[in-house]
């Protein structure tokens, strides 16, 4: 009888051992989580304190945050046909000493067969064929190979228009470093280059995102020079350049805390910083089409409404300005307006009003 009792007791002890081992593993897991959380919190605190000083010591960081030109699509930009643009030529223009710009010129779709095998001279001469010409000024990330930019070029081509898409200095394979004044210089040079070759063809400037600021500055300057664009399209425009901050990764980090904002804003300003859209639209007299998604998280739709009111007051006419909104349910966001099936018709109608 005693042996049986001892055996039973031994059996109970062996059954209890695994339970104790399991508790030990759980305790170690909880401990490791606590250590991980502690170090993560400590790292965030250090980052919080160090960031303003890094911005002060290395102002180039701010430049990369604003323009985000280091974020690339790794494609061969010299071969647009590889991206489905098989009636497009790649070329390089020099906007000023030391700055070479990568540019794509896509001809109207009805010239697709004729364009095969043609060189730069043919494409350059084609700008004067009487078809409307669009200069597309993109936003602050990536390069001209971004999918939504290729899509816009294809839409314009399908409508029978020329599309000239440039990478500003520092973007894509364009040389130099981007600055607000530098982007404007590049756009102004491209406009005059195209205008000289397009002869009497309608010339429209289409700006998207930060490209809207370049576009409105360009339109005002051309107006002052007596050589205005025939029309302007603003897609995803915002009311003030500073409000573009919400588009950057970790924007919540840089702008949520007042003292970080103080250091960020106190960095050296550009001598010739671009004028914000709302100020430019008070002066612009060029026919204007605005495109804006209601669910745009980068440039909230209320900004488009405010800009529309400013431009309408300046133009003193409903015929020379139009705001087209895209419902929130479509989920186009900041870059997706090109997906709307009605967009080609909207653009065609706008071009037709320029000739009226």
TrEMBL record:
Residues 1-23 are annotated as: Disordered. Residues 132-244 form the AB hydrolase-1 domain. The keyword Transmembrane applies. The chain crosses the membrane at residues 36-55. Keywords: Membrane, Transmembrane, Transmembrane helix. Gene3D superfamilies: alpha/beta hydrolase. This is AB hydrolase-1 domain-containing protein. It comes from Pygocentrus nattereri (Red-bellied piranha).
